Amino acid sequence: MNYKWRALALLWVAFFLQQGTRQIFGATLSSIQGSLGVTAAQIGMVATVFTFAYGLSVPFAGVTADLLNRKWMVVSGVFVFCLGIFCSGFVSSLGLLLVTYGILNGFGQSFYYPSATSIIGELHKETRATALSILQMGLYAGIIGCSAASGFLAEGGAEGWRLPFKIFGGIGVLWAVVLALGLRSGKLAFKGGVGERNLEQFNSPTRNSNSNSKPSLKEAFTVFIANPSALMLAAGLGMMIYVDVGFKTWMPNHLQEQFGVAKGSAALNAVLWHYLGAFVGVTLGGRISDRLVARRPSIRMETNIAGLALAVPFIVWMAYAPSLWVCGVAMALFGVFRGVYDSNLMAALFDIIPPRYHASGAGIMLSCAFVFGSTSPVVLGILKDRFSSTVGLASLAGFYLVGAAIIFAARYRAFGRQRSYAG
Asked: Residue 406: CB partners within 8 Å, gap ≥ 6?
């Protein structure tokens, strides 16, 4: 197998574990809440701490990946977050869970995505959106598989929720070894290509630097902040992450309470239909944008806009669905358009920033998004305590709409000046 596809396969499994282990918490939330004896707002704090820790760490992880070796950033990240997941299966208090799942897991997961996507971005030129879309499928498969397994394991007694943390965490620690053996230690070469030749408004931070030099932390932040399109994409992603974290945290619990579904079935149904729909959306979105980008350079941002805007009515329908099957249909359609957005999530960013800043740019963008999105589990927990989970889930539609509007502004106000920086 060609190395670029073999590397994608290795990173796909790691992404499966990264995203799948995140959903263990949502799938077993009600069991953990009962076992530890805490309120909805308190248990929501665990997901908030994780998301906030991830958001704070990821820009530094991205910049570090541009400075150091991206292979070892991926390997160490997978090892650290899977160790945190494994240890979460042994905790006896909310405080310890905040440390293992919230801080250690969040810190370790921040190492993975910027480095992995930049490795794929460099290995895949003409097939970039397709490759990143395939990687995105690891997210869907991981969430569905780990959520279903976790939900059913949690039904095996009051302490059954601990098993999935131990099982998937242990598998992940072993996969870190596989990554260490299977990935090459190649480094990004900055050859001064088309992206470097067109950095007109970034002359200040780059004009006196060697084209093969590594970007500094200050330089990476300066370039990103000076790019209005990148800032708007980060804000749009923040809206999406707010919805995603809140949805994955509270949807299993909503199905249990609203429709009387058992824990295992609720954990499966909460993600299965949504991510099957997303699988369709990400496949179509990636292939279409790759085919059209040569003739229409703005297609990747326009795909982002369409994905967020068209999902809005289905989020509301999902929250107020009168039956489980209607809710499943709504989640699936919500997922289709979420997948359309996902298909060009990083490809759109890589179109407007130079290759030397791909990992650091991805890290900064994810940081802005996850710090904002970290508030969602607690906010929805408060809304659930005061009103209902229906009200909280329906409120998510507004954030998708705002995200679409922000990226719309990025496309029509700044894109034309900043395209051509991609390598």
From this structure: 232, 235, 236, 239
193, amino acid identity: G
SS3 416: helix
Q: How far apart are CA 172 and CA 75, in angstroms?
A: 10
- Can you give the three-state secondary structure of 169-201, one letter per residue? HHHHHHHHHHHHHHCCCCCCCCCCCHHHHCCHH
pTM (two decimals): 0.69
Torsion sign (Cα): 45, 47, 50, 55: negative
| Cα separation, 121 vs 347, whole angstroms | 8
Domain count, the chain: 1
Q: Which domain holds residue 86?
A: 3-185+213-418
d(CA 374, CA 113) in angstroms, rounded, equals 17
255: domain CATH number is: 1.20.1250.20
Residue range 174-225, pLDDT digits in tens: 999 998 888 877 554 433 333 323 323 333 434 444 444 555 667 777 777 7
∠292-196-60 over CA atoms, to 5°?
95
- C-alpha torsion sign, points 198, 201, 207, 213: negative
